[in-house]
Amino acid sequence: MKFFIDSADINEIKDLADSGLLDGVTTNPSLIKKQLDKTGGDFLELIADICKIIDGPVSAEVAALDFDTMLKEAEKLANIASNIAVKLPLTPAGLKTCKILSQKGIMVNVTLCFSAAQALLAAKAGATFISPFVGRLDDLSQDGLQLIEDIVDIYEQYPNFTTEVLVASIRNPNHIVESAKMGAHVATIPPNVIRQLYSHPLTDKGLATFVADWEKTGQSILAA
After folding, report:
1. Do 58 and 24 meet the contact criterion of CB atoms below 8 Å apart?
2. Which residue of 8, 9, 123, 215 shows the fewest CB atoms closer than 10 Å?
3. Catalytic residue flag (residue 87)
4. Mapping DSSP to helix (H, G, I), strand (E, B) and coil, where does residue 49 land?
């Protein structure tokens, strides 16, 4: 499974990129606003800076809802860098734009997917990624992980579909592990949840024991 970071925070992206764990980045208007509120600056410059940090896909989202403006915005975003994945809404205009961009070889991330039927449409439109939102479905007492299983199952029936399932709206490590077991291709993860993946109380306990025992030897590896 590929790990994308769901953030527009340059410092967070740099820090986690240094770990070697990141394969890409996803942003959205809300994440962009949060970052620009802190640092100021220009949206396009921020996306360009992110693209310099990460070699993999960097999702940048259009703001328009009508087809003509959406296509113009999409083309401008795609020109920022070769690793841009234009993020489009799962609407008729978004799917029409997706088809045009995909035919030009531009990566597309179709977002705000909440049903398997929508995911089927995105695959037929040639999307590079489909982003089903797990956490937001869970918030409505629906089973977000069941949606991931359904989409993965449908896509596997049709080898000509090349769209990757990008699990979004992740709230906890369990969303990642269960999605990986189902065969989802990508998880886009908030920075705090990525760090939760490291954590286990038995790891902490075991490490504390090893450190305490080593100190009792009175020796130093570097001094040897």
Report:
1. yes
2. 215
3. yes
4. helix
Sign of CA dihedral 137, 179, 55, 95: negative
Find, among 142, 144, 120, the residue nearest to 130 by Cα: 120
Q: What is the pLDDT of residues 195-221, one digit of tens each?
A: 999 999 999 999 999 999 999 999 999
Question: Which value, to the nearest 10 degrees, does the dihedral of the CA atoms of residues 164, 170, 174, 176 take?
Answer: 30
Q: Are 2 and 21 in contact (CB under 8 A)?
A: no
Q: Using CB atoms within 10 A of its CB, is residue 220 exposed (0-12), middle (13-18) or buried (19+)?
A: exposed
For 34-78, write each residue's pLDDT tens digit.
999 999 999 999 999 999 999 999 999 999 999 999 999 999 999
pTM of the model: 0.94
The answer to whether 27 and 50 have CB atoms below 8 angstroms apart is: yes
Band (pLDDT 50/70/90 cuts) for residue 33 is: very high
Per-residue pLDDT at 92? 98
- Catalytic-labelled residue, pool 2, 87, 205, 216: 87
DSSP per-residue codes, 170-216: --SHHHHHHHHHHT-SEEEE-HHHHHHTT--HHHHHHHHHHHHHHHH
Two tokens, residue 192: 């705090």
Residue 109 CA from chain centroid, whole number: 10
The one-letter code for the residue type at 127 is A
Per-residue pLDDT band for 223 (boundaries 50, 70, 90) equals confident
Cα 97 from Cα 114, distance rounded (Å): 19
Q: What is the DSSP letter of 104?
A: T
